[in-house]
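[Target chain]
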Amino acid sequence: MAYPDMVRIVEVGARDGLQNEASVTTEQKVNLINALAAAGLRDIEAGAFVSPKWVPQMADSADVIKGINVAKEVNLSALTPNLKGAEAALEVGIKEFAIFTAASEAFTQKNINCSIAESIERFKPVIELAKANGVKVRGYVSCVLGCPYQGEVEPEVVLDVCKQLLAMGCYEISLGDTIGVGTPNKVQALLSLLLKHISADKLAVHFHDTYGQALANISKALEMGIATVDSAVAGLGGCPYAKGASGNVATEDVVYLLQGLGINPQIDLERLAKAGWAICEALNKQPVSKVSLALQAKC
């Protein structure tokens, strides 16, 4: 089986993970991001510049980013859904914005109270600000394999949304299985269509592990040439549409998978696991990661 020689991991635990967990202190977030970078992660989503009314866990993102002390080669990104958020991120030196929409009209209406087309229109000033300041923009598309409100999502709609975001100026699109309902055959069907129109280096995968399919889905995506994977240390996060379900696939599990496939992600698995243990202690919970729990049992 031909897998990519190198796989880039985008660590989303400090944002997508923690925003779905109990609040932790600014210092604990800073320590987490510093520890992730020390473990070898080079792409870390560090915060979100969103309304604290709706996402109180991210209210201190500016202070977190100001407090981080990582090597220059570490790329810190932040979620910037609108111009106000993008301007605030720019003020603290963020060099990569993240914007998000969905491939489901029902999802966008329920979550951001607008249509897919309207959500994309809102990104234009964010993209313009990014271009004027040499900032990269990464696009997220939620519900690519299923929606909690409408059920099935047509791959053609995913393709259309991806094309629009790339045309606007996104350098990469992260394909999100937001509720974790995808299976390898669904992943294959979606990517088979997308890769006819979009090069693999412009696509990433972002799987939630609600039904335990994330690693199998990642393996299928790797087989098809995708070389960027989103994940969250310790499996941080949750799925608001499936109570008690796990959220993001755990970075430790992804690293272990890659190592087993002969792909070196250049990440220290033990240091990564320790970063997860520390934040889980702050959250008063156990890691969701199977690999992390296995390493913890050996200590």
